[in-house]
Amino acid sequence: MTAAQRRLVSRARRARVRSFAPFSKFRVGAAVETPRGRIYTGANIESATYGLTLCAERVAIFKAVSEGERAFKRVAVVADTRPLTPPCGACRQILWEFCGDVEIVLANPRGRAAVYRLSELLPHPFDASLL
Ligand code: THU
User: Fold this and answer.
1) What is the pLDDT of residue 104?
2) Ligand 1 center to 129 CA (angstroms)
3) Per-residue pLDDT, 84
4) pLDDT at position 29, please?
């Protein structure tokens, strides 16, 4: 991993501590980085309805977009799993719409990491260019 990737993973790892996951107990942290190096973080927030749960990735990206950010160069996702936890299908879609073919760093808190492009995780995406 590069220093920039390690820095973003470290922010996602710290965000994960603030996960609200009393139902699944599955804690996830995410961090997104803008081209100018600003970082926004998120953690999964669960609902007693289960279905209204928001994943860490969407919390992070929606925080950033609601603060006015419109471009992203890197996303990190941290969960304590092996194999590493990738974004769910819904998050892949949202990440594609706001980040395009962004770099995705998956990591766990034990030092495992892997780097992908979003197009590897979401081939043949649907987006506004088709509307
Ligand atoms: N979750 C995330 O936050 N991100 C992922 O990439 C996978 C799943 C959350 C949703 C839910 O709170 C818990 O993990 C179990 O699915």
Assistant:
1) 98
2) 28
3) 98
4) 99
Which atom belonging to ligand 1 lies closest to the Cα atom of 28? Answer: 3
Q: What is the pLDDT of residue 91?
A: 98
Give me ligand 1 centre to Cα 44, in Å: 6
pLDDT tens digits for 68-112? 999 999 999 999 999 999 999 999 999 999 999 999 999 999 999
Residue 86 has what pLDDT? Answer: 98
The residue to mutate among 44, 54, 75, 118, having the most atoms of ligand 1 within 8 angstroms of its beta carbon, is 44
**CATH architecture classification, 3-120:** 3-Layer(aba) Sandwich (3.40)
Q: Domain ranges for the chain, please list them.
A: 3-120
Distance 25 CA to ligand 1 centre (A): 10
Residue 42: name the closest of 85, 76, 5 by CA: 76
Does ligand 1 have an atom closer than 6 angstroms to the CB of 46?
Answer: yes
